Each structure stands twice: as C-alpha cells, then as structure tokens.
Amino acid sequence: MSMERQFFIKDSHNKQITAIGYHPARRVYIIGFEDGLTKTMEVDTGQVISSTQLHSGWITDYFYWAESKLFFSSSNDGTIIAWGTAGSAHEIFGLGLPIYAMGFNSRKNLLVLGVKNGVFLFALKYAFVSEENDDIVKCIRCNESRVYTGSYDRRLIIYDAYYYPGDVGLKIVTKVNAAHDAGITSLEIFSDNENNTWIVTGSFDKIVKVWSQDGKVILKHDAFTEAINDLCYVQRSKTIWIAAGSPKANLFDPKTGEDVSDFIGTFQNDDYEGENYIITSLMYVHEMNTVIARKAPILMFTGTTKGEIAKWEQLQANNFTYTKEIYNYSEATSKLAIQLMEKQEEDCRKVYNVNRERFLSSISSIITTGDSNPSRQSFSPSILSSSSSESTALNRVRSSNNCAYIKSIFIESLDDLVIASEDSNIYVWGFDETAINLLNNIDPPKDAGLVERYSVLLDANSDLLKKHGSLQADQESVNNRVAGFICKFVLTGHTGCVTSLAIVERGSGYDTTYLISGGWDRKIYVWDLEAKKLHDILRGDDDYSNNNDELASDGIILDIEYCKERNEFAYASSDRLVYVRQFSSRGSEMRLVNVLQGHDGEVTQVRWCALHQLWITGSEDGTIRLWTADGISYDTVLNAHGSVAVLCIDQINGCILAGVQHAIRVYDPEYKTLVQTNYGHKDSVRDIIHIHERNQYISVSWDKTIRIWNAYKKRNM
C-alpha cells in the first residue's frame, strides 16, 4: 500500500519552516516559522486560513491535548502558548529559557519540555526538573506512562513518569549514554500487531537504529550519505519514513530493516526532475493518513583576502548551527597553472608549424632552382617539455601575492560560482563533471566501491546506480551539488585587479550565458561562460583583429550592474561618473546610452531597482542618488552620512540597503526616508545580500564576521 503526494505548497513564507503540526479538532495543518509566525492551512487544499505572530523567536514544536482540546506551541523565546479551538491564544506561559521540544503524557496529564541540559515535567500544580543531559534535548515522545528523550549529547533516556498528590517526577528506566556516534536528531515510538513497543532514532552520524524497551539495538540501518534530518512511522504502510538529504523519503521495514522504497510507489509515481529542495522534517497525521514535510535551508558563500572560499550551511536538523567548508586558493592556482602550461604548449606547436612550413618551402626552392646557398631562415623545431612549461606557469602564478577575492556571483542555471580576484583573474567553481564522466565509464563489477563512494556525483538515472541497487534520490538541491565543487576553469585577460561582475543569462534573449567584467585596467570584457572563453571586448570598431580595445572610462571601474528589462548595463567609475551602455554580444555595438553625472566623489556602487524602475548609485561623497530609468535626470539624493561601500536592493519591497562604515542603513525609495538601521559590525561592511526566501539580509565585514538580519517589513505589506 502506497501513499501519493496530495499537494505541494511553494513559497509558504519568506522564512524557514521550523515546526509542523496538526489540529484534529479544527482539521487544519499548523506551520511554524523562524520569525515566530504561525500559519493555519486547510487540510484538503493547503490554502492559508489565518496567520498569527505571538512568538518572538523560532517556533520549535507543537502538540495537541485532546482532553482539553487545547493546541500548544513552544518557541526558543522561552514561551508556550495554549491555543483554543477557535484559533485564538488561550494563555501564554513564560518559562524563561529556550524550549526545543515538547511531549504530553495523556495518561497522567503531564507536560514534558526539552531544554538545554535536561527536561522539565509539569503537572497541573507541580513541576519537576530532570538534569540528566549535557546538551539540548531535541526529541521527546510519550507513550502510556513513559517518556522517551533523545538529545545532542548522544543520550537516549527512557523515564517512567509518576504523579501523586503533592509529588511529581521522572524515574530513569533505561539510559544509553552513547546511543549514536553523533547527536540524536529524531525519535519515534510505535507498536506492532503483537503490542510490542519499539523505539527508532536517527542521528547526525547518518544511521537509523531500532531499539527495544530495555535499550538494546535490534536493527541498524546505515545506507545513508547524509545526516538523518527526521523520521516518522507511517501506520498505514507500517514503514518508517526517513528524511536524509533528498527530495524523496527513504522507506524501510522496521522489522526486517530492508529498504522498501522501490516496492512502495509513493515516490516512484512523481517526476522529481529539477526539484531543488530536500525534505528536512516529517510528521504523520494518523487521522488523515497524511505525511507533512518541509524543505531545506540555503547555502552561503564568502571569500577572504587569503583567497579562500567558505561555504556555510545551516544544519538541517538544527536551526542554531552552521557548518563551514573551505575551498583553498591553491586549487584555483593549480588550475590556472595547467591552463597556462597548455597555452604555452599550444603556442610552441604553432611556432613549430610555421618554422616547418618555412623549412619545407626552403627545401622546395633548392630543388626547383638548384640554389645550393639559400638564404638562412630561422627554424626552431624544439617544443618546451611539459615539465618546464608547468614550472614556468607555476612560477608566474606564485609570483603574485594578490589573492584576495573582490566579488562573487552564483549562477543557479549553471551551478557555477564566479569569483573575481585581485590577481587579475576570474575563477569559476562548479560541479565536477569530469568525475561524473569517469564514473560512467568504470567497470561496475570491479569498481563497486567507487560507485558507492561517489554515488552523490552521479545522476539519479545512472545505469551504475541501478546495477548496484543504490538508486539515489534526485540530487538537484544546492546542498548536494556543492559536495563536488572544484575550480573548473580560470578566465584570464585582465591586466589589473578585477572588481566587477555581472551576469547576462539565456533568459535575456541570448543563446548562451555571458559574464561582463571590469576592473582597474578600465576595460570591459564579455566572457562566454558556457564555452569557457573570452567572447569579446568593448572596442571602438568592428575589426576584432585590430585589437582596438576601448577604455570604458577615465577612472578604474568599481562596479557593474546589468538591467534585463532594458538590456543595458551600467558601470561605476572612480572618475565620479556612471556609464550606461546597451549590451550586445559584439563589443563594437555596446553603444553608450547615457552618463550619470552628479556625484562629488568616486562612485563605488550601482544597482538597478526593478520594482521602482530606477538606477541607484552610491559614492564616497556620502550620498545615494536615485536616477530615472533613462538616466536623463536623478530623482532623489539621500544623505548616507558616510562613504557608501556597498548597495543592495530588497527584492520584496524595493528598499535600498547601504553599507556605510560599520552600519547598514535601509532607505525606502518610495518615501525617500531612512526606515531602519542595523548596528553590530565592528568594522566596515563589505557586502550585503538579500535572501528573499527567508526575507533576511546577510552582511559580511572586515571584522571577520557574517551577520544575519531580519529584513525591513513595510506596514502595508
């Protein structure tokens, strides 16, 4: 018996989902978000019925008390809210410390709360605290008179709850100190047909275990490549659903430990091609025979002055921790050295071919004319060896001490991370396609271990995965794609620091993806990212062979922005001007449309605001100017009270974010006023991005910190 997808809700909110629940009396789903918002959705259609925001922190858990018909929600702001059947708040309780999980013992009417270092037990008049843990208690389940807890300190503890007049407490029945090799992220209790009770746990160690009541391991399921995000027992099919880094749940029989995903058509009947999410939470609603799931967070990339790229990912089972992965500058320079070596060898082959033609021509002349003393012609058939070419290339790379990354752009359509560097190069990082091709050609009987080890790099339809019975879920999520990131190629051509990048994607009317770059050499380069080569340069005539490159400005180029609606790009310069040009794939046809003139200092930033159809510029003169789309006149001048180092546009409400020294100022272009100021950085803010899925601002600074801020919300939105 299989289950099928009922509906899929996209863009439920611009914040991450942190809790899911079901209200049987009202027959609605309750969804909680990290900003404290609670949304009520109809069970049949998923339509939002109401939205309420009473919590000030992340909502962490829900449960329903059937006897009193109350629905409870908890948050890391230290509060618990009891909701009535009408959907209004019945009462708010303040615990004073973050709450991470809740459970309810219906037999004795006891409320169990998971906190840091232990659990709280509440009766109607009494409270009891058990401090048996050293870390956050993430999971709580209640069954009959027993309470089951799993925590990040790897402990699985089974309590027996007692409640007598004047006395309430928890007595430890079973305690497993090292239930897993890492923190426990999920826990489920279920009973079989013979009325035996089993415990199932999942962990960061990528293992699912089935336990008996006395704390003995019955089964161990370790066929996962990612941490276990969540699990639930589906009574209808008598299977355990496991969320582990995939848009599909893994299904297995808890009695035999066998993976039965291929025998139950739940996820085989749907096409998951191109899905860019992974399941991170699961909840089974017994009354509805329904499973609810939520998707995964987003990745962030940062670059440093040492040439390192850091990838940051919020843990899928923990909203409070980020993982960090470093990509070193040495890998990028090694790729550059190989490219330089290949170019030198190609140049040598060209010289050899030219000299060979001259030599043959000379011999032909001797045979034809009989001249025994022909004029000497240069002939040098030697070719540099691979070792000497590589050595020369490496010396050229190592001679540069400027390895700081200045600008980066992630291109979702290509899965490429493009980074501009101070060493005059542009490094393109992406998915290791070569490794995929190599894996597709290996001998399956001999290399089964390689298939298993690198299965994350293979496509879900790969024959190798089918032969080895390890068909993976679709790996189209950003999280899994990054696992195989390498430096794919290096774009060389600039003669100075590269400061600016802009992307022209296929959706703009072109048959490939173009990259526009500029920098200290005052030239505009257009690169074909799909062909991995230089396409053209801004030049004064149509004769490319003359190399009549045109200087784009009198000063160095500090920023570039492309406007898809107008097919124009603007670049800011240290000469106090902003130049707007028509974009074309031909360098000689990038016509100058207008020049934005008015700043009294170097123009450091230029942005296009699609919502208000304005060009936005920032300068060292301490002003932000708003220009009409045609660039003929400026609409408004905003005083930033300091040099503007970075600009960002809020994609939801069109507000302007300005990094001014160590502060982030938010301006509303509609009312021309400062509406929000964020303080926290100790040094100059260097970059800001807006994550519209979460409605958050993320900033980086020279104080070596990354900060995440709540985005500004207009009252009428």
From TrEMBL:
This is Uncharacterized protein. The keyword Nucleus does not apply. PROSITE patterns: WD_REPEATS_1, WD_REPEATS_2, WD_REPEATS_REGION. Keywords: Repeat, WD repeat. InterPro entries: WD40/YVTN_repeat-like_dom_sf (IPR015943), WD40_PAC1 (IPR020472), WD40_repeat_CS (IPR019775), WD40_repeat_dom_sf (IPR036322), WD40_rpt (IPR001680). WD repeats lie at residues 177-212, 491-537, 596-627, 678-717. It comes from Trichoplax adhaerens (Trichoplax reptans). Pfam families: WD40. Transmembrane segments: none annotated.
